[in-house]
Amino acid sequence: MRISRLVLIALLASSPLSVVAAAPPNALDVDATDAPRKIFHVRETIPAAPGKVTLVYPKYIPGEHGPTGPITDLVGLKVSSGGKPVAWRRQPKEMWAFDVDVPEGAGSLDLTFDYVAAADAWTTATPQLAIVNWWSVMLYPQVPQANELVFAPSLKLPAGWQHATSLHAAHAPGEAGDSVAAASRASSSAAASGRDSLGDAGDSIVFAPVSLVTLIDSPVLAGAHFKTVDLTPGQTPGHWLHIAGDSAASVRISEDDAAAYRRLVAEALALFGSRHYGEYHFLLTLSDHIAPNGLEHHESSDNRAAERSLIDADAKKVLGTLLSHEYVHSWNGKYRRPAGLVSGVSADYQAPVDSRLLWVYEGLTEYWGDVLGGRSGIRTPELYRENVAVIAGNMERTAGRQWRPLEDTATAAQLLYFGRPDWASWRRGVDFYPEGELVWLEADATIRQKTGGKKSLDDFARAFHGGSGGKPEVRTYTFDDVVAALTAVAPNDWAGFLRARIVDVQPKAPIGGIEASGWRLVYGPAKPELVRAAEEESEIYDFQHSLGIFVKGDGTSGDAGDGIVRDAVPGMPAALAGVGPAMRLVAVNGRRYSEKGLRDALRDAHEGTAPVELLLENVDTFTTVRVDYHGGEKYPRLERDDSKTDWLTPIGAPRAGK
After folding, report:
1. Candidates 2.60.40.3650, 1.10.10.10, 3.50.50.60, 3.40.50.11540; CATH matching 1-61+71-117+134-218
2. Of the four listed, 215, 350, 449, 540, which is most buried by Cβ atoms within 10 Å?
3. pTM summary value
């Protein structure tokens, strides 16, 4: 039986749960039946005493590392009390905050508004599916320790849609035990099995009350085409992969892929030695109409990829290690977190963040996500090594490293996440992800060298991210804490090691980990599979290691955007000849531009002495430039150095069961 809001409120009054005993909860009802139009209708009831109240919209979103709360998409806001309108006024210097004067005799405020979603938003939808991240659809009172505010949420979905979340559903006493908690556990098991579909369109899912922190940490995935895979059948804690897609075909997962994700869970637990969640839900959205992305949570992850990511080989390669990356965040980012990134946990979601340590938060997660991808079989050993080579090659070709240290890409993350593609190489982007991975690879290889293979970064992971485990919690750290933990594994000047690679300007990419692991970074004409697959999926063609440009489109679509130079790398042949971002390649060697024609021209130049001639359209001006380059196509790859111990192979080898 689904219970009404009034029954739930009555239930809470007698609940033994301390989280709901202190005060009436904030009622939050989200109606997503209009989600196919990307509209979410919201009703809230917020306990409030007479006087001035400030209502705030979450601003600094965990995992977003900046003030990204989508306040501009909150529309139609109306506030009332006792059925009478109450005026609100936005604060002129803090646009995520609204001041309200609660009238005499009132005990609560009633709010209604809509959230109108964009395709790249964290709360968004297509006609076949929806993802709800609660921070997009809520206001809450700005009070001391707002993170401890209790919410009683509910969600109405289109008829027939199934859903999954780490939240537990609420039940009346005696229905599944004598407490909300016991009932919630029983309900969650049904939801996790994939059987918890909605019946009538008027039904709402009523969730057990949770704190603001837990609610914001618990997205909901729903859809008409839905599949759940039990990754640890019969085991506690439970782990599930929930898939919603835009077609019935999109949610079909092969047994080989399901087995790889089962091994991912086993490998992660073998690496860290404990877990910091009661259960875990991988939420996977498959749509070509929603921007690909991923966001971490303690007990779930919000993963988004192309519609055919489980059924097409190239799309699967692009999906890659997204799920393993976000899963690692449960340990690194959610449990262990830089002290500057705890806005929501320590007080509310309005305080600015200090993101300097994102090379640990994201860079180390990128490292472990790719390592676990190799250990679990999500990627073959060859693709694991290929990915290392591609990352290293990209970082070598990043011109901005001549002036900008890696730490500054982390400090300025909230700006760089929204950087344009043009001049990205000269500006630098969120390089703390890929370059952070290279730094951590070198740390791993250094530990293995110094200890003769007796210890590795695995020992650091177990000591730093392990602990007793069992439930979500946050332990913060500083740079000195990281240094101390590394030193405990293998004595070394880790502070100097990290500062040289992170804080100092480094004109050369940190490929020392590749070399220390018994491999060399070399360049040749063979295109890596990961590059080829990414080109096929994105239609952005990678000539950065030859001409020094990226080009959008293959020239066959007839689209006006075909042939646009997405970026040009300063110092490379094309840029030296005068090519810049946003210019359009009209012709190559006198013939209309095509991607294949450009590759033919590179081959001809490699075999001859004539330059590559490019006709460029720059706004309304046409220019011909001659690029005197004869090196042919070039791509990075790893080559074995037999004079050194191969550490890279054991780094990516399975650990579970050993």
Report:
1. 2.60.40.3650
2. 215
3. 0.92
